[in-house]
Amino acid sequence: xxxxxxxxxxxxxxxxxxxxxxxxxxxxxxxxxxxxxxxxxxxxxxxxxxxxxxxxxxxxxxxxxxxxxxxxxxxxxxxxxxxxxxxxxxxxxxxxxxxxxxxxxxxxxxxxxxxxxxxxxxxxxxxxxxxxxxxxxxxxxxxxxxxxxxxxxxxxxxxxxxxxxxxxxxxxxxxxxxxxxxxxxxxxxxxxxxxxxxxxxxxxxxxxxxxxxxxxxxxxxxxxxxxxxxxxxxxxxxxxxxxxxxxxxxxxxxxxxxxxxxxxxxxxxxxxxxxxxxxxxxxxxxxxxxxxxxxxxxxxxxxxxxxxxxxxxxxxxxxxxxxxxxxxxxxxxxxxxxxxxxxxxxxxxxxxxxxxxxxxxxxxxxxxxxxxxxxxxxxxxxxxxxxxxxxxxxxxx
Length: 397
Ligand SMILES: *Cc1c(COP(=O)(O)O)cnc(C)c1O
Known about the structure:
The chain is built from 13 helices and 13 strands. The protein is α/β, with parallel strands linked by helices. It folds into 2 domains: 14-254, Type I PLP-dependent aspartate aminotransferase-like (Major domain) (Aspartate Aminotransferase, domain 2, 3-Layer(aba) Sandwich); 257-396, Aspartate Aminotransferase, domain 1, CATH 3.90.1150. The strands form 3 sheets. Strands 1-9-8-5-4-2-3 form a 7-stranded mixed β-sheet, with helices on both faces. A 3-stranded antiparallel β-sheet has the order 7-6-11, with no helix packed on it. The radius of gyration is 22 Å and the shape is globular. Residues 56-58, 82-83, 85-86, 128, 154, 156-157, 178, 180, 191 line the site of pyridoxal-5'-phosphate.
């Protein structure tokens, strides 16, 4: 019928291709100047002194929890409505995730809901800017100060956004960005830890690099001798480094960040204008002081639709070559968390109700107005079919 419209697509120009090829030709493929430059650019954007490039956003969260000394017996508060990595990282260090339901409008955790879950064992709060929306982050930061419990900002969906004048990535004691290809910028796979805390930064640098001294820039082929040797390991570490090819791609993408965010903003506004008048569809709401960094464009069906109908609408969109997805299933209801934490349906009423009705629509920089219109036409047709199927069934009964 038509060309496929994917759910997401990275924006790679000749500048990125040239940067990666030049790095490939340089002979320096890991632990080098590209990662250092990428770290500077991302840290500066988040208003932080340190950037630590890692192999994925998830690896960054894992290291942030380890560097904060979180382990067995500890509780970590984390959102019920987010990507699964926001909670898996708590399991990696042997701690217990304590889930908090989301606000129905912003989809982020509310500080008062978080406060009610704080116990003597709470050792961290993981705050997520869901879909790139910074709503409520200053309240979470204030709560973290009041109880002296560190806020870990899972900023993997929010690079470049801000709340008033405060950049996403600047709210937590430590924040983590992610660069999977569907994010605002990509490194193929990759992540970045940012923080003001010198000790925490050194620990993260060491943990990502097999436990070598945090300041070590040694490589297998030698390095500045004064900065620690290749085979000195101060602690049990991991290999969560970002390679130089990814970092070169990241540097080229960072230089285009504002341009990329503007294009995403235009696509989001085009969708919102097109769908605003449709009573079956709720478009994202953004408060006046929230400068979204648009990660995805997710609409919600109105309350009269069931989860099964939503799934049928997504399947219909896909049959018509339009990418669509159900961002996100509530994390506590995923099999491994249900086994571990014993939650039952109904424990997180807002997250469950929201997640049964979400549809992520195709969203990337180069989406044209015509394609947005085609996606919306197809969506409206699938919604009509679902409504029609239901009234036919009701008549039979
Ligand atoms: C993308 C994302 C991550 C990290 O993902 P990786 O694929 O590991 O880079 C973590 N948390 C959230 C909320 C995300 O959206």
